Amino acid sequence: xxxxxxxxxxxxxxxxxxxxxxxxxxxxxxxxxxxxxxxxxxxxxxxxxxxxxxxxxxxxxxxxxxxxxxxxxxxxxxxxxxxxxxxxxxxxxxxxxxxxxxxxxxxxxxxxxxxxxxxxxxxxxxxxxxxxxxxxxxxxxxxxxxxxxxxxxxxxxxxxxxxxxxxxxxxxxxxxxxxxxxxxxxxxxxxxxxxxxxxxxxxxxxxxxxxxxxxxxxxxxxxxxxxxxxxxxxxxxxxxxxxxxxxxxxxxxxxxxxxxxxxxxxxxxxxxxxxxxxxxxxxxxxxxxxxxxxxxxxxxxxxxxxxxxxxxxxxxxxxxxxxxxxxxxxxxxxxxxxxxxxxxxxxxxxxxxxxxxxxxxxxxxxxxxxxxxxxxxxxxxxxxxxxxxxxxxxxxxxxxxxxxxxxxxxxxxxxxxxxxxxxxxxxxxxxxxxxxxxxxxxxxxxxxxxxxxxxxxxxxxxxxxxxxxxxxxxxxxxxxxxxxxxxxxxxxxxxxxxxxxxxxxxxxxxxxxxxxxxxxxxxxxxxxxxxxxxxxxxxxxxxxxxxxxxxxxxxxxxxxxxxxxxxxxxxxxxx
Length: 575
Description:
By secondary structure, the chain is α+β, with helices and mostly antiparallel strands. The protein is elongated.
């Protein structure tokens, strides 16, 4: 039996400083190396209790911690946090909700709170960017130690911002206050003012997290189960080693030589642990500064790099567990987690991503803006994906999204959107679909018969029949080739065969223009006479559709005239 270190999830709105906060704790600079400065994948950092004690030494007093440290998980967002789950809950024991103290609760903050509620995960608010409040730019060290030197004006500015956050959290169902004013942490969410940029308040945050974990989570941190299980975070190619898997071990003891069940591209496989490597304390598992240490066993909770013996193809985001006990049941639970709970449609775009967490995040974000998804899988884009996209009826669904995966096949009939930043993908796909939709609407408008009114110009008959060719003036609207025409009495006379001006052939003629038109099936002087007024011969369906079209004043007047002509035979026409 042993007390494992708590797993701390770090969530919050984009750009509120999640990774920068961890950078300050570990003294590294991971954020600057991320695509677009935004965390794209889940990372893990172990902070030993010795380091926490050193950072907090001036404010600890007589407190003694028995936990071995804190294991921080930095996520791209609440969606990836949601994907790190086991037995209906989250593998995170406690969370840090990072909020920009100036902006307060934002949309992704609110969504993160919903996930924390769902998994009943206790959390602490890190009110970040305190250095941007007037009078705090030069503050360093622990917040609690600086209270005495902060004058009334500065404290009022700070408390105003904290009150804003606590009010917003109250609307989300939580009572919250500045951490040093809380007496019962089981009933109130602690708000810790911090600055990731200058390190202000970091000691207070670590002290609160460690204290809460030790005081209220001891039972779930006591590890008596030796069957190792965890989650694969990343899969990468390592020079000289081949495929390696970065993972979080959240239960038991994993040993070199153990056989574990894990999701691969070929299904759930039993793979032998050939080697294990641990990042040094305060180093980031996905982007380490120092070399990893080779180890024979790893005790939960830990971040570990695993080298498997076998075919490889491990799927990022897959749970894993030692192959012992009910193998069939373990396989079923792993397979269920990999497939996720995506709501797929019969018609929709195809999404591919490099990890289960990434895929869940992508599907979630696209679903939120109403993008239908037909297929969602982990792995590179394949010919089958292209075929799936092409089989969609709607052009705006003939799209393949490649989130951080290779695209070895290309087809110009399909739009392929490649990006390493999930929010850029969301914006780009919305623009592409809107562009396709507008193009379709323009084509549809060209095929529609719009209200138009023309005058048969006297003295401009060039041929009386087969076809009749005569000059007209467009009095209102736009006259198009193939437009059906009728007379003032509502009698149909045929459709426009061609429109010409001089030697030039036109597809349409706008209001005020004089052109020559040709029509079959009529004879000038019989069905049509010089000086006649002719109208577009609309049907009722077209008239109803035109209600949603942006018509000009003249077009609206002409439509009313057409409606009145039609109502002579049918009083309810177009209504």
